[in-house]
Design brief:
Rossmann fold; Alpha-Beta Plaits; globular; two-stranded parallel sheet; six-stranded mixed β-sheet; 7 helices; about 20% strand; about 30% helix; 10 strands; alpha/beta
């Protein structure tokens, strides 16, 4: 069978990347296709037009931001087109709720010529807390992801996979207005530039990584990936939300899968 499995993801803290790669590898093996990867995490990787054909398969992985797809992916999604191309969508959320994000992704892909054959809501460690869903996706999550991909592959292999029903509401929930915040830096900073190189919003200065411009996504990539532990946020509302998560959303949730 010709065509590729296009593993496409936006993944500041690497949880969505892990799920997308797991799904793509299993689909490729089952369908006899090669995997090609498109990383939308950094600004240079986003916004390019891409077209997939009927023999290709799209795997799309992204984190849930307040029950929605990340807003900064809109241009990339608009430039992604298919011609009856099967798609498998994975929304990764931090053990609170994924709300309308999975449905929103399906609607956007359907409008652009894809047939969303399967969709899953997976759990990843919350970006605001290392305690909420710590270490996830874990081995159990990845086993479920592989089984999910096997079922999706069997559906795709029929040659005429039907669009999957996915829960969510229309109109989608309003986007959280968010907070105008910036990461701060302690004296432990070694100027290794890991934060600047990995900032999805491109707001951390390469001249001085202790400085950040406007437009922070609060994705926490700089905090979680700093080898010196020098990045932090001290906004009271953000810290209050993290405390809420650690109070009310510690019980383990399992992936919800639609095939």
């Amino acid at each position: 069978m010709s065509g590729i499995v296009s593993s496409t993801f936006f993944s500041p803290t690497h949880t969505s990347r892990t799920i997308a790669r797991t799904l793509a590898a299993e689909l490729a093996q089952r369908l006899g296709k090669a995997v090609e990867e498109t990383d939308w995490t950094l600004p240079a990787g986003r916004g390019h037009a891409r077209a997939l054909g009927p023999d290709d398969v799209l795997v799309l992985g992204f984190p849930v931001y307040s029950g929605r797809m990340p807003e900064l992916l809109e241009a990339s999604m608009a430039g992604l087109t298919g011609r009856g191309t099967p798609a498998v969508v994975a929304a990764v959320y931090g053990n609170r709720a994924y709300e309308d994000a999975l449905l929103e992704a399906r609607d956007m892909l359907t409008a652009n010529g894809f047939v969303v054959t399967a969709g899953g809501a997976f759990i990843g460690e919350h970006s605001f807390s290392r305690k909420v869903a710590a270490g996830r996706p874990d081995a159990g999550d990845l086993a479920l992801a592989r089984d999910f991909a096997q079922r999706a592959a069997a559906k795709i292999a029929t040659g005429a996979p039907a669009e999957v029903a996915i829960i969510g509401d229309r109109p989608y929930r309003d986007r959280w207005p968010g907070l105008v915040v910036k990461p701060k830096t302690t004296d432990d900073c070694t100027e290794c530039m890991t934060c600047a190189e990995g900032c999805p919003a491109g707001v951390i200065s390469f001249d001085n990584p202790r400085e950040a411009g406007d437009g922070c996504l609060r994705c926490m990539a700089c905090v979680k990936h700093c080898p010196a532990g020098a990045k932090y946020f001290d906004d009271e509302k953000l810290l209050g939300f993290a405390t809420l998560l650690e109070t009310k959303f510690m019980d383990r949730k399992e992936p919800e899968l639609f095939v």
